[in-house]
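Design review, sub-item: ligand-bound model
Attendees: FS, YL, KQ
YL presented the inputs for the adenosine-5'-triphosphate complex:
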Amino acid sequence: MDNESDSDDNLAISVRGLRKTYGKSVAVDGLDLDVRRGEVFSLLGPNGAGKTTTVEILEGYRSRDGGAVDVLGEDPGRPPKAWRTRIGIVLQSVNDAAELTVEEMVGHFAHYYPNPRNPGDVIDLVGLTEKRKARTRQLSGGQRRRLDVALGILGRPELLFLDEPTTGFDPEARRQFWSLIRLLNDEDTTIVLTTHYLEEAEELADRVGVVSAGKIIEVGSPARLGGRDSGKATVPWTGPNGPESEQTDSPTRVVTELSRRFDGEVPGLAVSRPTLEDVYLKMIGAAR
Ligand code: ATP
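KQ shared the predicted structure:
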């Protein structure tokens, strides 16, 4: 991990040796995690790796069997009353559909917080303005998910947990959601984002943590995870006998040589580095 220099004051979340078992099955197996104040931290990992279990322990919704957990200076296993209002939560399961309209629902939940955002503003922010009079049971899956997000940000949380927030979003809604996350982050909200969309992690996260079999196996910025920035580049081009390519630590040198060899434009030339998905899949594969 690259966070050894963080002092406790800089951390929104600090976890050491977290353990959770369900019967004989170990869901979280000695997990360590630091999330800095003000960052967007994304948890990546395959189905069943222990992400939701971990996040729900951090949110105070599940008990743990071992380890030390500090979230905004408190133990979520024994939180003082005000602590909950400092945290925003968008759970993986969608809210139950109800007879209440969107605006009634958001208005209702606003009363739970000491300093809520204006409910109308929140409805606008998540793109539900046109649906504000609709009953929540009449919303589409993606629209209900937006309502979940609205309820999660209503209380101006210092720390926002988003568990697979954009599942069921169309591409435009996903981009709108990304803008919303950036806006919240600009307001200094710390965000923990669990996602299976690697482009979402790449777009939003300052750092990602890869979870496998109940442990964090690597933490880094999306650009540097798994030595992505320093890994070999692939340079493909089209030679006289068809496609060719070279794996290299110095793509600039290869391109210069090719340019000389072809005396100008090199047909089919590209330089590609491993994508976040490439390094992620490699890591997960190696951890199995
Ligand atoms: P996904 O990406 O599918 O959401 P995840 O990383 O969030 O997966 P968890 O939901 O934390 O994974 O599950 C971790 C392990 O714990 C899995 O093997 C799961 O079957 C098990 N598990 C989770 N909740 C329970 C429960 N309430 N009772 C028994 N086993 C559980």
